[in-house]
């Protein structure tokens, strides 16, 4: 809504300290369309745009998706995850 933005962040947890750190993140956007973050070993290079990020890596053992809001506006969204072997 308005000028507020959101950012999708994939984070991993350090097993010793329990501290979360960012693995990959989309650019903050006010876009109301699909925001996509892809993490896969087979991606040959890193490609980022306003609403899409692709990272060559593997999914960590302990991970979470976090949505970061720029303001206090009301947002409605859903998160979906597809895991591949």
What does this structure look like?
The protein has strands at 6-13, 20-25, 36-39, 47-48, 52-55, 63-69. 0% of the residues lie in helices and 36% in strands. It is globular. A hairpin with a 3-residue loop joins strand 4 (47-48) and strand 5. The strands form 2 sheets. The chain has a 3-stranded antiparallel sheet with strand order 2-1-6, with no helix packed on it. The protein has a 3-stranded mixed sheet with strand order 3-5-4, with no helix packed on it. By secondary structure, the protein is mainly β. The model is unreliable at 46-50 (pLDDT under 50).
Features:
85 residues; mainly beta; three-stranded antiparallel sheet; three-stranded mixed sheet; 6 strands; globular
Write a brief caption for the model:
The chain is an all-beta fold and 85 residues long. The chain has no helices and 6 strands.
Mean pLDDT: 75
What portion of the residues fall into strands of 2 or more residues?
35-45%
Query: Spans of 5+ residues with little confidence (pLDDT < 50)?
Result: 46-50
Main sheet, how many strands, which sense, barrel? 3 strands, antiparallel
Task: Describe the protein's topology.
Elements: E1 6-13, E2 20-25, E3 36-39, E4 47-48, E5 52-55, E6 63-69
Parallel strand pairs: 3-5
Antiparallel strand pairs: 1-2, 1-6, 4-5
